[in-house]
Structures are given as C-alpha cells and as structure tokens.
Design a protein that fits this description.
Helices cover about 40% and strands about 20% of the residues. By secondary structure, it is an alpha/beta fold. The strands form two sheets. An eight-stranded mixed beta sheet has the order 4-3-5-10-6-9-7-8, sandwiched between helices. It has a two-stranded antiparallel sheet with strand order 1-2. Helix 2 (about 15-30) crosses helix 3, helix 2 packs across helix 4 (about 45-55) and helix 2 packs across helix 5.
C-alpha cells in the first residue's frame, strides 16, 4: 500500500468549488444579490457559501457594510488569484468545446507572383484547405525562413538555399508581350514601338532585360541610353503588365504570370526568343516541412503549378 500510495500525488487542499465560485462572483459584483443572479441561486445561498469559505480560511474576506460589501485585503488577494484561475479554466474548457481553430501559415513571395499568381487562386485555396488561414507576405526582399519570419516561400532562382528544403515548381521564361492593338508581328518592327522596362533585383541570376533579349535574338540593340529614354520604366512587374495591356508598348513579361492574359488574347507574344530566368521553387525551413498546415499549403501550391502552354520562341 505504501509503495502504491507513494506514486500518487498529494490531494489538493482546496475549499469546495461552490464556495470559491460564490466568493468570486460576489467579489466581482460586491453584492450577494447580483452574484446570486449570475449563478442562479438565492442570495442566502451565496452568503452561506462565502461564510463557509471564511471559516475554512480562518479570516474574513468581506467587510459587510450597510447595503454594501467591501473586500478585505485578504479578499482582494484571493479574488485576484481566483479570477485569473477561473479565466484560465474557462479558456481551457472553451478550447475543447469549439471546433479546431484555423491554423495560420504565412506565405512569402515577390510582389508580382503574389499579385498575379497567388491572389487569383485564394478562393480556391480556401475551398481546398478550410482549416488553414493563409497569410500572404508580398515583398521583393527575401525573408529569413529559418528565423521564422514566414512559414513557406515561393522564390525564383536555383533552389539551393542552405537550411531550406525546396522543390521546383515550374521553369520561368520571359518574352516580348504586347497588346494585339499594336499589330506587332516581326522583330524587325520592334524599334518602331516603345519598350517597357522593369527593374530586377541585384541578386537575380539571369534578369530578363532588353539588352539581353536583343543579344539572344541576334539583333543589334539601340543604344542603352536611347532605349531607356524612349521607353517606360517600372519598379514592379505588375505595373509593366498593366502598361502593356493598355497598349503603351512592348514589355518583357513572365510567361507564367501572364498566362491568363495570353489565353484571353489580351496580350500576345508576337515573336521570340523567350529568355530563361531560372525556376520558381517552394521553400521551407528544414524541419518544418512535415507540419500539417505548412504541408497543406505546400501540396496545394504544387498542385496549382501546372505546366503552361508552349509559346513560340
């Protein structure tokens, strides 16, 4: 018996729960009558339970004034502790009563991919993963996944990042795109049209800029200064896309991110070549790839990365 008993923790030396609840309610209202209404008992029952608690503790918890209650110093200390304890108990029980809360996952990617690829698919994601709250962090500055600045990333590049687990989603190519309103058909006619330029981050492995396109096309490019001066320049690819859609010129745009506009005919690729700029990759910090919510986002993005239609060039 002694051996068995030694493995059982000591009993908690607590007053009856009914007395503690009656005191906490009375202390909150400073009224036996309002406490009775809260607990659906009579005022005399509250008074009896509080008196029993005071007898158990050996000290008064209230000063009973004319038509009013006031807490003693001991009552104030006990009320503060009980209120905190009951709040924690209520929160714990409430968690069991409610359905499992949505798990939040932060996805970080560059602004163009966020606007052109992720946002149009958000409703589909909510239907596919109702238990996951996807938070989108759009920035052209890389965040530290290992430090926990985001849970999962879509990045362009080589996919070999220390401390990260990555998976190639799709290769990325850039090509001249424009509105069909321009009537552009041949590369030789390109100098007659305004060129739309888009800034690339310094860490880009193979930026799709017009000087590179002319070189790979085997065409003598205009002077760099003249090419910039006569064109339009944007810091964000989404704005460059909007300019091309409005017929303001010809832009080197992502064939992945412009897929919908090419399908609808709002943008056309009049000629090649298409420039290889690497691939898009999924990436997570090593060790977090098996977390259920992160895995759900990972699998959904991978399922959406279907091959794009082949383009000329």
């Amino acid at each position: 018996m002694n051996e068995i008993g030694s493995s059982i923790r000591p009993l908690r030396r607590l007053p009856p729960l009914l007395s503690l609840r009656a005191f906490e309610a009375a202390a909150a209202h400073l009224s036996f009558q309002r406490a009775a209404l809260e607990l659906s008992v009579t005022p005399s029952a509250i008074s009896h339970q509080v008196r029993a608690l005071e007898d158990t503790l050996g000290q008064p918890l209230f000063r009973r004034l004319t038509r009013q209650l006031a807490l003693t110093p001991a009552g104030q200390r006990l009320f503060a502790d009980l209120r905190m304890g009951f709040d924690m108990l209520e929160a714990g029980v409430d968690k069991l009563r409610r359905p499992a809360a949505s798990q939040a996952v932060t996805l970080t990617t560059n602004t163009a991919f966020a606007a052109r690829w992720v946002l149009p698919r958000m409703e589909a994601f909510r239907r596919a993963c109702p238990g996951v709250e996807l938070r989108l962090h759009a920035s052209d500055t890389l965040v530290d996944l290992a430090r926990g600045d985001a849970d999962i990333a879509v990045r362009s590049g080589h996919g070999n990042w220390p401390g990260l687990v990555s998976r190639e989603l799709m290769p990325e190519r850039y090509a001249p795109l424009c509105s069909p309103m321009l009537g552009l058909k041949r590369a030789s006619d390109l100098p007659k049209h305004r060129l739309i330029h888009c800034d690339w981050q310094p860490q880009a492995l193979a930026p799709a800029v017009w000087t590179r396109w002319f070189r790979e096309a085997g065409i003598t490019p205009p002077r760099a200064r003249a090419m910039k001066a006569s064109g339009l320049s944007f810091s964000d690819e989404t704005h460059a896309t909007l300019a091309a859609l409005a017929g303001h010129g010809v832009a080197l745009l992502s064939l992945t991110l412009s897929a919908e506009e090419r399908r609808s005919g709002a943008l056309v690729q009049p000629f090649g070549p298409a420039l290889d700029t690497g691939s898009y990759f999924l990436a997570v910090a090593r060790g977090s790839e098996s977390e259920p919510a992160v895995r759900a986002v990972w699998e959904w993005i991978a399922s959406q990365a279907a091959p794009e239609p082949q383009s000329r060039g």
